[in-house]
Backbone:
């Protein structure tokens, strides 16, 4: 018996498959020529560009001659009904609401572009909570007794429309402006401005900037008869703990209440996103709350509404969550709630994710500093004692490997051998550690064209720092009256907030930073206890108002500085925080196979160019072959460090792999990643240390290039996976590179997408990378 190695077996499989593809291509070409009118099975794709009517008469016209309607379109229509009814239209989504009997209520959603002006609108009287927002002030729920103040709208082109509804409460001295922004994508943005028009401070106990009935389902039981499916499946990240980010799972929606929350009633590492799939009628809702404090998504499915009690209605609300009151509003003061980003598609999980990513790129995230995302980073951190020799060695390795940013992480301010954790807040270079300061390192980095950066845990001070000793009153107070929340600065105190902002400015300017890395290694848990106008206010809201304002100012002051967000891993990945940064760390867990689960999930919530992880360090090197570890980072912004110690001989094979991976990223992936489409072939993986196959695909917007990573996770039982790429063009031909063997084959897109490619991996924690280039 001849025993073949895995590599030899792969070569034989590839050779056989190439011949099969050539045979199939010839046969397919003949079949298509003779049966052009025959319907062929294919995976449905949602359209984002629509042909104008005058182009449909000649469907054989070349694409270049067809008139294309821009998909970036929106409008806000105020109907002529006696009760003001508004239709918000963006792309093919229509959301409607009305002012009726002193209430602002939802009238339903339509994902096919129709305004329900003659029938089909929800009847608010059938629902117990039809209001489009929820607000509790001074112990009173303000769901009724509003007075209509009119609708204003403005358009700024490129599909952007901003509508504002003004409401005045007739019992409490409160005015609300309901803001809705449309940007031509399938996602709408909603927030409230709340003004205290009275003479006394008002206590905001709770608020949901968006709520109401998502859908009324008639005849739903007949639609699902025999399917064993629930009416709704609810998808979200299962875990809220450190190192468990991005574990996406589907859950059956019960005919009862269901709550998803984080950062208050749960831990802080669950990203505030949900996916909601209607298994009877196909609507797919996707929503994110742009908020860094505690949050809550609430759902209630009532299956007993309508004339005969056989219809089902799903009501939701979304908003910040904390102990009440969350915000004291002074007389004449106006505050803004967090934004809720909510949309609807008729399509699958991929289409919902692409719609959200398109929206975030267009309307939420700022343009990248220095005109580019995806810088390849390297650095050195406190996992070892940082010395002059260690920093210079790390710079040498970064230069050799091809890094573009080099930074020093925690302890650059701490005494040698000391605890870097305890002196956080003393933001001056420690001259015992670095007698000549940081300038020699900066000069070395700049001399080879790399960017230079430092780390700060700016919102925390160690108990041995000067500021903690001089200003103990600047530390945040817990609900037990103690200032013991890991050294958290009380940014509800204007003096403490001003000091922190000045420290950041000083570190950036004095050290001439090109790159600023923010960490956040504490957790206020229940919130910050503050005394305000006779109330015990939960400081979460006021704290993050301040944080957002500080980084808004810093981004304006330092437009060329790359701002990176980190929070003990992925504790602050929400779009409220990330929109003020260039990208964000999504985890401190780099160990396979969980590293796939984290990359897989977090690239659902955020576009891949805004996500980063680490290769080398944090024990990531302790499991899986090198290619498994490195290929995952092709689907995001890569960072590496700790490749080999001082004095060790350079392993040329290892460094060749490093340079190969970085070259693939810089030369092939990065040019298209900022407008890419990502496809999650295995969105749900089983177990915290998942097993089975994990498959990710990244494709350019024009479908001319792409990559697909296939990862055999733990405990493999199926050695072969048939990959059908989703981001290619059926009408093109592609050069397909099998990276394990560095071999290529030219295949037409139709065959690739419909018949697929068999990929064989027998061993746990191994991988393959397929690269597609249109010929």
Residues:
């Amino acid at each position: 018996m001849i025993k073949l190695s895995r590599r030899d077996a792969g070569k034989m499989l590839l050779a056989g498959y190439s011949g099969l593809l050539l045979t199939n291509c010839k046969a397919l070409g003949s079949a298509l020529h003779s049966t052009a009118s025959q319907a062929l099975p294919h995976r449905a794709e949602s359209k984002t560009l629509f042909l104008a009517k005058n182009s449909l008469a000649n469907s054989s016209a070349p694409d270049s001659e067809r008139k294309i309607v821009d998909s970036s379109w929106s409008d806000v229509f105020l109907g002529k009904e006696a009760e003001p009814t508004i239709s918000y239209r963006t792309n093919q989504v229509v959301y409607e609401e009305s002012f009726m009997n002193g209430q602002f209520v939802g009238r339903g959603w339509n994902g096919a572009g129709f305004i329900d002006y003659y029938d089909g609108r929800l009847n608010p009287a059938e629902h117990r909570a039809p209001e489009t927002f929820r607000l509790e002030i001074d112990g009173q729920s303000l769901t009724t007794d509003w007075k209509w103040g009119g609708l204003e709208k403005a358009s700024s082109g490129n599909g952007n429309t901003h509508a504002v509804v003004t409401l005045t409460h007739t019992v409490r001295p409160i005015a609300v402006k309901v803001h809705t922004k449309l940007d031509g994508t399938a996602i709408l943005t909603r927030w409230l401005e709340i003004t205290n028009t009275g003479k006394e401070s008002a206590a905001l106990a709770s608020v949901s900037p968006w709520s109401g009935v998502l859908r009324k389902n008639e005849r739903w039981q007949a639609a699902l008869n025999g399917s064993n499916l629930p009416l709704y499946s609810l998808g979200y990240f299962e875990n809220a703990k450190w190192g468990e980010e991005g574990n996406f799972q589907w859950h059956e929606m019960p005919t009862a209440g269901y709550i998803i929350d984080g950062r208050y009633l749960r831990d802080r590492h669950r990203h505030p996103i949900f996916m909601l799939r209607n298994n009877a009628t196909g609507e797919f809702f996707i929503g994110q709350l742009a908020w860094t404090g505690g949050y809550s998504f609430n759902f209630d499915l009532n299956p007993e509404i309508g004339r005969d009690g056989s219809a089902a209605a799903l009501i939701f609300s979304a908003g910040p969550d904390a102990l009440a009151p969350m915000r004291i509003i002074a007389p004449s003061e106006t505050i803004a709630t967090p934004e809720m980003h909510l949309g609807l598609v008729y399509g699958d999980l991929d289409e919902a994710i692409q719609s959200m990513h398109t929206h975030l790129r267009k309307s939420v995230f700022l343009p990248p500093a220095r005109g580019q995302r995806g810088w390849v980073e390297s650095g050195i951190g406190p996992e070892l004692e940082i010395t002059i020799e260690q920093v210079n060695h790390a710079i040498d390795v970064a230069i050799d490997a091809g890094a573009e940013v080099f930074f020093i992480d925690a302890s650059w301010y701490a005494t040698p051998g000391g605890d870097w954790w305890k002196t956080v807040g003393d933001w001056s270079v420690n001259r015992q550690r670095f007698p000549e300061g940081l300038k020699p390192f900066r000069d070395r980095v700049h001399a080879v064209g790399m960017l230079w950066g430092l780390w700060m845990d700016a919102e925390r001070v160690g108990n041995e720092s000067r500021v903690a000793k001089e200003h103990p009153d600047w530390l945040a107070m817990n609900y037990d009256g103690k200032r013991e929340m890991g050294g958290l600065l009380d940014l509800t105190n204007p003096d403490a907030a001003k000091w922190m902002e000045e420290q950041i400015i000083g570190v950036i300017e004095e050290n001439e930073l090109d790159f600023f890395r923010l960490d956040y290694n504490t957790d206020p848990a229940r919130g910050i206890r503050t005394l305000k106008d006779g109330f015990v206010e939960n400081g979460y809201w006021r704290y993050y108002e301040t944080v957002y304002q500080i980084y808004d100012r810093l981004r304006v002051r330092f437009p060329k500085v790359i701002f990176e967000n980190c929070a003990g891993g992925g504790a602050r990945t929400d779009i409220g925080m990330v929109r003020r940064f260039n990208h964000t760390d999504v985890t401190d867990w780099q160990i396979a196979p969980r590293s796939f689960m984290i990359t897989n999930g977090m690239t659902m919530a955020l576009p891949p160019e805004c996500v980063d992880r680490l290769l080398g360090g944090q024990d990531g090197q302790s499991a899986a072959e090198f290619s498994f570890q490195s290929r995952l980072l092709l689907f995001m912004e890569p960072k590496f460090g700790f490749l080999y110690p001082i004095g060790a001989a350079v392993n040329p094979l290892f460094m060749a792999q490093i340079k190969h991976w970085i070259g693939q990223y810089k030369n092939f992936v990065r040019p298209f990643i900022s407008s890419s489409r990502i496809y999650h072939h295995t969105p749900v993986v089983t177990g915290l240390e998942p097993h089975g196959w994990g498959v990710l695909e990244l494709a350019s917007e024009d479908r001319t290039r792409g990559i697909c990573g296939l990862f055999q996770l733990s405990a493999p039982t199926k050695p072969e996976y048939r990959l059908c790429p989703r981001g290619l063009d059926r009408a093109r031909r592609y050069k397909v590179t099998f990276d394990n063997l560095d071999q290529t084959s030219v295949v037409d897109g139709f065959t690739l997408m419909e018949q697929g490619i068999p990929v064989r991996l027998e061993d746990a924690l191994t991988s393959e990378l397929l690269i597609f280039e249109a010929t």
Notes: Residues 1-69 have pLDDT under 50 and may be disordered. DSSP finds 14 helices and 42 strands in the chain.
